[in-house]
Amino acid sequence: MAFDGITIANITKELNDSLTGGRIYKIAQPEPDELLLTIKNNSSQYRLLLSADASLPLVYLTDKNKQSPMTAPGFCMLLRKHLQNARITQITQPGLERIIRIHMEHLNEMGDLCEKTLIIEIMGKHSNIIFCNEENRIIDSIKHISGLISSVREVLPGREYFIPQTQDKQNPLDLLALEETSAKKTVVEILSSTSMPVFKALYGSYTGLSPIMAQEICYLSDVDGDIPANALDSSSLEKIYVNLISMLQKIKNGSFQPNIIYEQKNPIEFAALPLTLYSNKETVFFDTISEVLEHYYEEKNILTRIRQKSVDLRKIVQTALERNVKKYDLQLKQMQDTEKREKYRIYGELLNTYGYEAKPGAKSLEALNYYTNEMITIPLDETLTASENSQKYFDKYGKLKRTYEALSELTVAVKEEIEHLESISAALDIALQEEDLVQIKEELIESGYIRRKGDSKKIKITSKPFHYISSDGFHIYVGKNNYQNDELTFKFATGNDWWFHAKGTPGSHVIVKSEGKELPDRTFEEAARLAAYYSKGRNQEKVEIDYLQKKNVKKPNGAKPGFVVYYTNYSMMIDSDISGLEQL
What we know:
By secondary structure, this protein is α+β, with helices and mostly antiparallel strands. It has 13 helices and 21 strands. The longest helix has 45 residues, at 386-430. It starts with a helix and ends with a strand.
């Protein structure tokens, strides 16, 4: 996530364009470390969210309102006292620091014009919202930082505000004020004086540059960002300088292009400038950086929230899976031990045939194995007769045979249970809504892994399969869990519809509604990609997919949910890239 000085510069420009000249209409503090300002400007109303949350500090314009507490916190009341109806004169960013200053003017109780500044510091766990007067003295802040907490700077009422210089970094925008020769010399000297990787040398030397933007400069310069900076030749240094200056010029001119990078429809990165190093992934551009931040964190939060809500279910599945895998491994070891049974049977038969040759007290007997026509040595218990030794071997054979027969059934049952649990784990991985978890929980209840509470009835299921449409207009459905897989395959699909599934790995059933038409090759490939993506093999470069008409897919009697068999099918190896598919 590139919430760096460049992103802050983009936000600052957007806020300046939208809010400068506007008046603060409402001030709310919906969370202990969050403000929501309502601003009226040019016949429009804007909501500005300011968050100093240690885990997720944010600043962006939003259309959404938030419920405020019944009693406003003290910091909120203080701002209302000073800033109600205040006019925003400008919004600035010092250098490329992760700091935004909102400059305002208002009339005090005496009717005199006063200036105030609201400073938002976006600095991870050190983030804060600080309210200062015209003399740069702190009036108050949303978080109080005493000398006991920080030895660098106190953030308390009455203290002078300053930006802590905790790192020896330069403002890269200063390069634009230098002559080209001097600017280039400065960059070259910085890079040539360190053995750090190039991208680390860049973001470690200049404020505002995040690791990802430093990697972008290296990528544009066709330089491996991981090599030592002092190993660069003059040509590479020249390219890095040119691309750094080009990026800084775009920032100075406000030529931003806010975007989000998606991988398999999941947001993985955002930036205020294009990230060409992700050219192999889907890039979606937005009109404003506020839209980017709202979309990105909203989509991220959905995934995070579902992960949190599925923790208990995952723990139950993982515990059961580990227990069954351990049981299966033990059974396989026991099965391996039963492989001796045939040897004991042969020993018994040969002793019945040649036992008369055994001398009393002998510890072994050499005999011809008439099954292989080879001589073998049969160990004997010298305290027993040949007949008694024979019976002893037959007893061992019978015991191992019974064990083998019992284990043959048990291992099959345990293996099926492992596959069932792995399929539930795969369903948890693709769950996107709370409704999806309800159906998975119901399956765990009916499988005996969760006890249904009291007299509670079966919960109504509202989760629906994923629905896509192929490039050629065919409707494709993807089951989110085992119950949906059964429903799609055996109740929804008709005989001539096509069925897809990842071979030998847990995953979703994918159904293509043929509507009596012949499917084009492209639809086969798109359906196969969906089957690959919604399987445990999605991170592999290629996944083998089995596909056949639904009429050839059968469900054995008593089989677990989602389990099917088929004997005639086609197969293809394909990637799991579904970025070009439209989801309905």
